[in-house]
Amino acid sequence: MDDEWICARLGEDEPWQLGAVNPPVFGSSVFTFGSMAELGAAIRDEDERYVYWRGTNPTVDLLQRKLAALERAERAKCFGSGMGAISAAISSLVSAGDHVLVLGAVYGPTTQFLRYLEKFGVTHTHVADLAACEEAVRPGTRLLYFESPSYMRYEIFDLEAVAGWARGHGLVTVMDNTWSTPLFQKPLTKGVDLVVHSLSKYAGGHSDVVGGVVAGPARLIRPLALTEYQLYGAAMSPHDAARVIKGLRTLPVRMAAHQERGLAVAAFLEGHPAVRRVNHPGLPSHPGHGVARGQMSGFSSLFSVELDTDSRAEVGAFLDGLRHFRIGVSWGGFESLVNAPALTVEESVRATLGVPVGLVRLAVGLEPAATLIEDLGCALGGIA
Ligand SMILES: Cc1ncc(COP(=O)(O)O)c(C=O)c1O
Questions:
Q1: Residue 348, Cα to own-chain centre: how many angstroms?
Q2: Where in the chain is the domain with CATH 3.40.640.10?
Q3: Is the pLDDT assigned to residue 384 strictly greater than 80?
Q4: In the predicted model, is pLDDT for residue 380 greater than 70?
Q5: CATH annotation of 251-380
Q6: Per-residue pLDDT reduced to its tens digit, 343-370
Q7: pTM above 0.90, yes or no
Q8: Is any ligand 1 atom within 6 A of the Cβ of residue 83?
Q9: Does the beta carbon of 210 lie inside 6 Å of ligand 1?
Q10: Is residue 178 lining ligand 1, measured as CB closer than 6 Å?
Q11: ω before 58 within 30° of 0 (cis)?
Q12: Ligand 1, from 83, 177, 208: best to mutate by most atoms within 8 Å of Cβ?
């Protein structure tokens, strides 16, 4: 089925009550039954039946069906945040004594969650590439977790090669596909087992919702829905699901605009003398560009630049000097944002993480590219 159709209409072929074009928001925490026998049957099948909001809800269910279709997954389960989805997905697959391989750089709190799991006897190893995976894999390794593009430097991994290697070693693969959205990359079709997303970024698109999703085969989603979803309580609300459904309606047109503006801004920065390097996989100069073009159908607008300075003061002055980009942590909304991770941590922590002082992350929003380029050009004057 066509992605644009899924975003606009899947599950909504019949007009809603009174001819409404938007689905009703089922703001009911509880659903009632005609008999105890009916309630009992529903509780036994609570990942599919509407019993209580912390299990599932019809509005959330509609969003789940759309997201499963976009990821070409049998099923999807939505959560109250991306971290809710990531922590549930990982912990549904490991037990005490198991080991996890983390390929490339991943979102900071994901690594923090893996560290947290150490107190339950689950260990992990960070590796840079498949050769290092081969060295680090051990009999207790169960899971390979990764992002492509990777976090902060946007390195590309060959999805078929990673999934094939993991399968050959009996590992389950989990991939965070937030950067690409399900429109630009479909990891399950390349052999990845489970995909996770933060829906707080492009899927929502308006910086007015926090949510997450895990998508994959029913054999992995059903146990996770019945156990981790119910017990951790990171439930998605129907009101938030309605916001993400609204975000999906315009996702194809927004992503085309994000791609165009992101590439225009990245190309400008690549040619600027105050910039050492631009980490955007959509630029032909990026080392992973060829592989990216083979497995992705587009590029989103989150990338990083390495400024030609090692002075915290100069980097800070550059960010403070921007008039249209706003300073903030998230990304994927209509608004352009910047952040310099090195300036938010102590120098000793920065050095351990290996983040250059001059690394600045840009999330290009939907403002005109020319305005954003002019803004960056003015602020970079202080460095050049
Ligand atoms: C790549 C990536 N994955 C997951 C998350 C977590 O999502 P959430 O903030 O919805 O919990 C984020 C948040 O910034 C992220 O950047």
A1: 28
A2: 3-248
A3: no
A4: yes
A5: 3.90.1150.10
A6: 988 888 888 878 899 999 999 999 999 9
A7: yes
A8: yes
A9: yes
A10: yes
A11: no
A12: 83
- Judge whether 247 and 209 are in contact, CB under 8 Å: yes
- Residues of the chain within CATH 3.90.1150.10 domain(s) are 251-380
Q: What is the predicted pLDDT for the residue at 308?
A: 96
Residue of 111, 181, 200, 236 best suited for mutating to test ligand 1, as the one with most atoms within 8 Å of CB: 200
83 C-alpha to ligand 1 centroid (Å): 6
- Is residue 15's pLDDT more than 90? no
Q: Is the dihedral of CA 372, 373, 376, 381 positive or negative?
A: negative
CA of 21 to the centre of ligand 1 (A): 30
Phi/psi zone of residue 179: left (φ > 0), alpha (ψ -120 to 50 degrees), beta?
alpha
Q: Which atom in ligand 1 lies closest to the alpha carbon of residue 199? A: 10
Cβ atoms 53, 237 nearer than 8 A: yes
Q: Which CATH class is domain 3-248?
A: alpha beta
CB of 81 shorter than 6 A to ligand 1: yes
| Cα–Cα distance measured from residue 101 to residue 162, given in angstroms and rounded to the nearest whole number | 12
Distance 310 CA to ligand 1 centre (A): 28
Token pair of 352 as six digits: 């351990």
| Phi–psi pair at 151, nearest 5 degrees | -70, 135
Q: Encoding tokens for residue 109? A: 């709190």
How far does the centroid of ligand 1 lie from the alpha carbon of residue 382, in Å?
32
Residue with the two structure tokens 């079709």: 189
